[in-house]
Amino acid sequence: MMKSQLKKLKHIWVLNFLRRTFNATRYYNKKYMEIIKWGIASNEDTNYTYDLTEGNMLYLAHIISFVVQKDNKTILAFINEAQNDTFLKDHIIREIQQSDLKKFADQQIRFGRRMGWYAMIRALKPRTVVETGVDKGLGSVIICAALLKNKEEGFEGRYYGTDINPKAGYLLTGKYRQVGEILYGDSIASLSTFKDTIDIFINDSDHSADYEYREYLTIKHLLTDDSIILGDNSHSTDKLAIFSTEEERNFLFFQESPLNHWYPGGGIGISFKTPKTSRQAQNKITPESNTDNTVSMQAASN
Ligand SMILES: C[S@@+](CC[C@H](N)C(=O)[O-])C[C@H]1O[C@@H](n2cnc3c(N)ncnc32)[C@H](O)[C@@H]1O
């Protein structure tokens, strides 16, 4: 009697196990299809590119809107501006086609989280943006596109990328090169000789936790209360959150949701000190009055 009841229970457990694990696999099976499609259609073997889901873009806009204290519609307009920049997209496609590294890149241009970098630069009008880790230069050109738009509005800014690979940054040509340059060599070595105050610092080079943290320590003295750090490694390490705690900075994290791609997504760690409203209230700067170099970021008056 006891034996048959145990057997029955075991049987039910097995059924239950199968039902539960089958339900769990439904979250992942779609990914296998996406891997196969990507394996056929894409050339990329690292630094994957993809669009974000519509809802994810809205989340991104809300987070940036909070950090820069501008309304969400303004941030979404900046994101749309980048997405609809056909000159930029044509430039990237042309440079990829001409590059001897084209077999590692796709011809479809998808910016993912870099839209957030773009919107932040458009909103804050920084003078100096540093991005460590350039790869082909997708970040470089979208950042320089934002700086060029700011320039049209009277706010000059300059981009510095760092990369250890002498072939990195082949997309940074043409008009984008006018507002940006790449410092070749080890990122920490380049940052160690950097003299300017950094308004926006993007960490995306050697992705080891230790190296990432050392980059933050290297540029610590170049940060002001208005400086913002964007961590491209924050989905895999907590170093920017730790640095933010040590430096009494706020920290937020945006998680990407890639559209129709197997990659689970990276993110943007955002480290910022003062609420941007107080800075804007203190420094009502317009392009005309923007001659005082003691103010590191050119808060737009709109
Ligand atoms: C993930 S990719 C950068 C992607 C780029 N930020 C973008 O938006 O597409 C990382 C880059 O960091 C560079 N890198 C790795 N270690 C480095 C180091 N110690 N110093 C400078 N660059 C480094 C690699 O050569 C590679 O191009």
From TrEMBL:
One GO BP annotation of this record: methylation
Key words of the record: Methyltransferase, Transferase
Domain of life: Bacteria
Transmembrane segments: none
Cross-referenced SUPFAM superfamilies: S-adenosyl-L-methionine-dependent methyltransferases (SSF53335)
Listed InterPro entries: SAM-dependent_MTases_sf (IPR029063)
One Pfam short name: Methyltransf_24
Region Disordered, residue ranges: 277-302
Entry's Gene Ontology molecular function annotations: methyltransferase activity
Annotated protein name in UniProt: Class I SAM-dependent methyltransferase
Organism for this UniProt entry: Rhodocytophaga rosea
